[in-house]
Amino acid sequence: MIFVAALLFGYLLGSIPFGLLLTRVAGLGDVRSIGSGNIGATNVLRTGNRKLAAATLLLDALKGTVAVVVANQYGVGLGIIAGFGAFLGHLFPVWLGFKGGKGVATYLGILLAVSGLASLVFAIIWVATAYLTRFSSLSALIACVAVPITLLLLGFGDAAIAFSIMSLIVFAKHRANISRLIAGTESRIGSKG
After folding, report:
1. Which pLDDT score is estimated for 189?
2. Ranges of each domain in the chain
3. Is the pTM of this model over 0.85?
4. Rounded to a whole number, what is the distance in angstroms from the first to the last CA of the chain?
């Protein structure tokens, strides 16, 4: 029962749509009506408001971090379950008809609570790829491939399994991005389209 409670706690925390809430409060309307239609930081950036995009990134990441840190107080293994719940909540929020973000920021927030070193690897790979290509989606996908391997090498076997599953889900949520990358039509970081 405690595992279900941890998953539900994480899910409810993860389902808070910060990108949507922040853009509405700022008077920018519904972020789902622009760009990719996503509620995440990359699409919030398409509003032209970098501060809101940064706040969205931070808050979406914190959902994952807080879920893991709080649940870990109640037992070994509960943190990763709550983190996984937060990840699912961000992707499939009940409040938005189960249509949420793509989960990368929340993924990173969970990772930060599990391993600072693996988070650093993720960040370095993401920044380097983004700098070279200006594709947020490609940067996230490459970083998500590296994470389970890094965790395994660091001795976090259970976390490596959980992050392998989350990485597969991230790839599934980026199907359209992958198609656009192959076609050469993917939007670059900072573009409004």
Report:
1. 75
2. 2-183
3. yes
4. 45
